[in-house]
Amino acid sequence: MAVRTVEWLDEPVPAVRLLDQTRLPAEEVHLTAADVDTLVDAISRLAVRGAPALGAVGALGVAVALAQGAREGWDDARLRHEITRLREARPTAVNLAWAVDRVLAFLPDGPEAVLAEARRVFDEDEAANRALSAHGADWLLRRCPDRPLRVLTHCNTGTLATTAWGTALGVIRELHARGRIELVHVDETRPLLQGSRLTAWELRADGIDHVVQVDSAAAGAILRGLVDAVVIGADRIAANGDTANKVGSVGLALACADAGIPFVVAAPWSTVDLATPDGAGITIEERAPDEVVAIGGVPVAPAGSRVFNPAFDVTPARLVDAIVTERGVAEPKLRPDMTAVQQPL
Ligand code: MRU
After folding, report:
1. Where along the sequence does the record put site: Transition state stabilizer (predicted)?
2. Do the domain assignments include residue 196?
3. I want to staple 99 with a disulfide (CB 3.0 to 4.6 A). Which of 19, 59, 144, 270 is the partner?
């Protein structure tokens, strides 16, 4: 799809232009962030979201911070403080911190070198997504050769969650391009509805047949034999293949294991965090209670209800059949070791 989720603007001042995802699908509204406060706010309230898109914004955001610092006369300590705020705006998706650190290494070489590296982070994302999508489609078609696939997905992992094409949704796009998709089951993805608001919007634009379902319909659909495979994205993959992704993912993996159908994770290598040995070391973001007890500002629980609102969960490697990255496919159920697919770039 043609939409640009994240763009760099040179003029009038260096800035990042974002498609405000909180307004979709009702309206396509962009916002321009020329300072760190606006960037951190956009990330925190999910105007931009999805691990690879957060990486792109983090990378370009360092260049925004440098330009703002030059305009406002920041010293080095202030600059580093602001960049740390950006880096820590959301804790679970490793892509954000990874991209900020990668670009920050070019700080001694000056603002042009920083921006050039940020652009490389941006440009590499689509290439990675297209490569991992081909690997994922190949793997799924080997496992499920007999019929066009009925695939279930959770959250949004498409163009909106990346710089272009998508990860799990990229695999689905690739299968569709090969004429091998019958139907996509789209989990609505409570509480913020990334599935129904964003994934259904992308699938509709691409003419890929889909149904939107409440999250609690997923396990029943899987056990009734209505789904051939589940494909999801990831926010952080530990060295052993334990995978953090949108809350609700682990329940899908359990249902797949019981039904004997593949549970596939699709993510760029930048989502793999070899420094974290297993899922116990992954910080799970907890978000505001309002997201759960109100919908569109209307209360859906008694006033004062206590809330548990983790944005993510961790699927143990023992439940993951395949992790597809641009470097190839790992099969954690068989070998819980992400370095098994690590190749030189
Ligand atoms: O809270 P979000 O919308 O940022 O969560 C996004 C997800 O969980 C995605 O599945 C993940 O980031 C992969 S996006 C390609």
Report:
1. 155
2. yes
3. 59
Q: 103-152, pLDDT tens digit by residue?
A: 999 999 999 999 999 999 999 999 999 999 999 999 999 999 999 999 99
pLDDT at residue 1 is higher than 90: no
213 is in an annotated binding site: no
Residue 145 sits in the same domain as residue 98: no
Ligand 1 pocket mutation, candidates 156, 230, 263, criterion most atoms within 8 A of CB? 156
Same domain, 242 and 117: no
Host domain of residue 284: 139-341
For residues 156 and 246, the answer to whether their CB atoms sit within 8 Å is no
pTM of the model: 0.97
| Same domain assignment for residues 25 and 151 | no
Ligand 1 binding pocket (C-beta < 6 A) is: 46, 49-52, 93, 155, 157, 161-162, 167, 194, 233-235, 245-246, 311
Active site residues: 235
Task: Using the mean position of ligand 1's atoms as its centre, give its distance from the Cα of residue 69 in Å.
Answer: 30
d(CA 122, CA 110): 19
Do residues 151 and 98 both lie within one domain?
A: no
CB atoms within 10 A of CB 334: 11
For residue 192, how far is its CA from the centre of ligand 1 (angstroms)? 11
Tell me if 132 is assigned to some domain.
Answer: no
Residue type, 83: I
CA distance 233 to 254: 16
Tell me if the bond preceding 289 is cis, omega within 30° of 0: no
Tell me the mean pLDDT in the region 295-309.
96
Q: How close is the Cα of 313 to the center of ligand 1, in Å? A: 11
Closest CA to 46 of 285, 305, 307, 213: 285
Ligand 1: residue of 24, 96, 133, 245 to mutate (most ligand atoms within 8 A of CB) is: 245
Are 176 and 279 in a shared domain?
yes
